[in-house]
Design a protein that fits this description.
alpha/beta, Trna Endonuclease, Chain: A, domain 1, 5-stranded mixed sheet, 4-stranded mixed sheet, 42% helix, elongated, binds zinc ion
Length: 288
């Protein structure tokens, strides 16, 4: 057990490193335009792998509704003790809300003392609806548990919750799940879990065409960005990319591309390496 914890620790550390890397390399911007939500779900998905007990997970499960449309469940864990229905909110800022109120509020610091407010549909009610839908497909004999998981970069303010649902930060998820699982008895056999998984996993592919389109869009966008960078054009604002030297962090001393419109535009990219870098450096010096 101690060894397992050590390995998990190691994985967490690697994750932190990756986060740091993204922040420093400017990939955080790419990530944001490429869908911040997906990233949050992926982080949770990786944690679920370490939950004790036989389980299988389904990401992005599209449930058909009576009116012909579909609703999407971010993550499902089919576990010996029941189905854990997870709604991921990878938000930042302060979060206000209550179990009963229809809308919750996210406030963001927009700089210069300005506060931006956004409303979003109450995730507790949203997940309740998901569970209702899920019971229609799976049957009501399987106990289901609602989890709303927020990213660690937001902060809860005066959340009024009725205790029917867990509303937690991502960093608390493993502990909460382990505690909850411990208190519950096994209700599903391995073959039942497998059967449920097959049923629900098939629903996660119902939108394959849409997903394919999305992948193509991302690919095209990435190609555009790469082309811009190779032409030393900032893909974010159209400014010129210039070679700079990192002064802080683990990459101190190494070269990177920064936007000439800094600090207005904070885009950064990897600089070329080797001979290419040398040529660029000489070019830039000659321009001065
Ligand atoms: Zn720029």
């Amino acid at each position: 057990m101690a060894l397992l914890d050590k390995i998990k620790n190691q994985i967490e550390k690697q994750e932190d490193l990756k986060e740091q890397y993204y922040e420093q390399s400017g990939a955080s911007w790419l990530r944001t335009i490429f869908n911040n939500g997906t990233k949050g779900e992926y982080q949770i998905y990786k944690k679920l792998v370490n939950v004790p007990g036989y389980n299988k997970c389904v990401a992005n499960c599209y449930l058909p509704k009576d009116d012909g449309t579909t609703t999407e469940i971010d993550l499902l864990m089919i576990h010996e003790t029941g189905i854990y229905v997870i709604e991921s909110k990878n938000y930042i800022g302060y979060i206000f809300g209550s179990s009963k109120r229809r809308y919750w509020t996210q406030t963001l610091n927009a700089g210069r003392g300005r506060i931006e407010k956004h409303q979003f549909y109450n995730p507790v009610l949203q997940n309740k609806a998901h569970i209702r839908q899920l019971k229609e497909i799976v049957g009501s004999f399987v106990p289901m548990y609602s989890y709303i998981v927020f990213g660690d970069k937001c902060e809860f303010k005066n959340l009024e919750l009725d205790g029917t649902c867990r509303v937690i930060y991502r960093s608390e998820l493993m502990r909460a799940l382990k505690m909850d699982i411990n208190e519950k008895s096994k209700v599903l056999t391995e073959s039942q879990i497998d059967a449920l998984f097959e049923k629900l996993d098939s629903l996660s592919h119902s939108d394959t065409n849409k997903k394919k389109e999305h992948v193509v869009e991302i690919k095209q966008e990435r190609e555009r960005i790469e082309k811009d960078i190779s032409n030393e054009i900032c893909p974010k604002c159209g400014g010129k990319l210039v070679l700079r030297t990192a002064t802080k962090g683990p990459n101190a001393g190494s070269k990177f591309y920064g936007c000439s419109n800094y600090p207005k535009c904070k885009f950064t990219a990897k600089a070329p390496t080797g001979l290419k870098l040398l040529i660029k450096e000489i070019e830039q010096k000659n321009q001065k």
